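Check the record.
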Amino acid sequence: MSSPSNSADWLRAGGRLGVAVTLVVVLGGCNSMVAQNPSSQMRPVNAVYRVDQPRLMLQGYDLVAYHTDGRALPGQLQWSFEHEQVIYQFASAAHRELFLQDPRKYLPAYHGYDAMRMVFAIPERADPNQWALIDGRLFFFADAASMAAFDLDRAGHMALADRYWADEVRGRFSEWQRTRRLLDPVPHYKSRDELAREVAATKAKAG
């Protein structure tokens, strides 16, 4: 049986551990907020925090390569460029030059957030390896399941995502917007499971 002094030591240790865990979570959240929410026209943006690059777009993948090479290519630090407080990396000097000439041409829809979640006004990070180039516009998705759901009605989903991005998401803090729409979903909201069932049913009908 532990003595009162030992019990007190355990409580103090547990308290310190709880504070440490809380600090890690809070600091991690702060870094995420910093990365995704510049005080520019790019707020919010699918960027990650690095010590020397506080807002690295799309984990450092080359936005130009999706258009010119038709594939996802990691960019290099030596070919980086800052635009609207967001840092972009490119696989070559030529790609960086193309971006410099016309950034708007290469910026992805919804600043790189998952296009399917944007249908529900939820800014959610996307995977740079899950993408689609549709009529010259670059779209990203959190995973293959999200892309498959979007493909069920590209035109309809695109129209909804464009509307919510313009009217509600653009210019807002990412975490606040995400939390708001998870607590108060849009009328047409569908869970991941519901979307997965729709995709499976469509595939079954197609044979």
